[in-house]
Amino acid sequence: MLEPLAGRADQDKWVIYVPPENAEAVRAAVFAVGAGRIGDYSCCSWSVTGTGQFLAHDGASPTIGSIGTVERVAEDRVEVVAPTRLRADVLSAMRSAHPYEEPAFDIFALAPPPTDTGLGRVGALPQPEPLRAFVSRVRDALPATSWGCAQPGSRAAGVAGRGVRRGRDSLLGAAAAADVQAYVTADLRHHPADEHRRASDVALVDVAHWASEFPWCNQAADILRSRFGESLPVRVCTVCTDPWNLETETGGGQQ
């Protein structure tokens, strides 16, 4: 992955302190509004029993103990996860089921886990090969276009085995910093490409935008066929929609 997609912090961990005899009611209440779901599992929670302490002041109406006396009672620490968008619902459900007028609880926003979704893929060749051969490999793997494969720099260079495919010129810095020898992309602009060549040994291979995306169409079609079977006929349109469609003669004139 050249530039992983940053995950969204859309999950909370709730920590609720409740007398053991009321813990099941609190769990049931928050589960009912959507807490406690992890993947294909529901009603997920973790708990441990400890000792809670509090001192009720004038104006309080303690469920346990009396005004002006420090109370120490057994409490369960109940942990559940819930989508961030359900904070208000979980809070309301927890309060309605909790015996205390002032329940003790914490809400922790969870950091998103690493993801394998993002821009760019790092691949490895079976063995090193000259850059000229690598460019031919790329050209042969993609549908033909008038643009073909543009490769600035020395064709005498080599690709030692690792390359990046499908990004954009905003990722040139990431490609230069990666342990790769070639960067296959589309839509490179003049100045970013020129500046990259002056600062990095990572070879650039620029292909037509349409050609770089077309292979994904068959992958998407396979996913749909696998999911829906014969109930959803799927066909991949093979019409080339590349707008740069005029061939250029060797002498420089256009046909």
Question: What does this molecule look like?
Answer:
- The chain is an alpha+beta fold and 255 residues long.
- It folds into two domains: 7-109, Alpha-Beta Plaits; 119-211, no CATH class.
- It has six helices and 13 strands.
- A five-stranded mixed beta sheet has the order 7-11-12-13-9. A four-stranded antiparallel beta sheet has the order 3-4-2-5. A two-stranded antiparallel sheet has the order 1-6.
- Helix 1 (20-32) packs antiparallel against helix 2 (87-97).
- The longest helix has 20 residues, at 209-228.
- It is elongated.
Question: Briefly, what is this?
Answer:
The chain has about 260 residues and is an alpha+beta fold. The protein has helices at about 20-30, 85-95, 130-140, 170-175, 190-200, 210-230; strands at about 5, 10-20, 45-55, 70-85, 105-110, 120, 120-125, 130, 150, 160, 160-165, 180-185, 205.
SSE order and pairing:
Layout: E1 3-4, E2 11-18, H1 20-32, E3 46-55, E4 70-83, H2 87-97, E5 104-109, E6 118-119, E7 121-124, E8 129-130, H3 131-141, E9 149-150, E10 158-159, E11 162-165, H4 172-177, E12 182-186, H5 190-199, E13 203-207, H6 209-228
Parallel strand pairs: 11-12, 12-13
Antiparallel strand pairs: 1-6, 2-4, 2-5, 3-4, 7-11, 8-10, 9-13
Helix pairs in contact: 1-2
Distance between the termini: 41 Å
| Shape summary | elongated
Examine the secondary-structure arrangement and name the CATH architecture of the largest domain: 2-Layer Sandwich
- Give the amount of beta strand, in percent: 25-35%
Helix content: 25-40%
The biggest beta sheet reads: 5 strands, mixed
Q: Please give the order of strands in the largest beta sheet.
A: 7-11-12-13-9
Low-pLDDT segments, ≥5 res: 249-255
Instruction: Give the count of helical stretches.
Output: 6
Radius of gyration: 30 Å
Number of domains: 2
Structural class: alpha+beta
> Average pLDDT across residues?
87
The counted number of beta strands is 13
Report the CATH C-level class of the largest domain: Alpha Beta
Strand/helix succession: EEHEEHEEEEHEEEHEHEH
Write the CATH fold name of the largest domain: Alpha-Beta Plaits
